[in-house]
């Protein structure tokens, strides 16, 4: 989280692009370049074709709708995060150009699952840890509700599943989010928005994060 003495981030500078010399299995994401063919029920096979698969070091993630009940209804907590991949769209040939910079993207709380996070209890544990770290709310794993099955964001290339969850922090006093110390958390700040307003912002593209919109829809379906 940004301290009061730290200047705001205004740009992300690429110091080096070492894509041409980097190995596919090093770095935060692991790229597997495969040659595959389809096996058919009649014993025949398709022609050989290429498949690229992107894995994270930790396979899956949890996303948490942190909400509270106010006079106007449900309010949802979001984070403004630095997102280099979205930011580096600038200058590329877009089908529908827009004027957004995407230096920061507004999202709900989320984090990668660790090896020890097993089963539904593991999902609740990691959700509670992420809420404490990213939002500053001390909640118990048993306070976390799972919002149905996990989902793929881009199943054509990305093996990760995101597991949606929610937790009600009405009346819970917030602490100071500790973050993880990464430069990507510089300037991160929290916002509270009415659920309906936030969902409308998703539909208008002002909050262009798919997991946020889907998790909000899951929460609404649960409340109905």
TrEMBL record:
Record-annotated Nudix hydrolase domain positions: 57-215
Domain of life: Bacteria
InterPro entries per the UniProt record, alphabetical: NUDIX_hydrolase-like_dom_sf, NUDIX_hydrolase_dom
Name of the protein in its database record: ADP-ribose pyrophosphatase
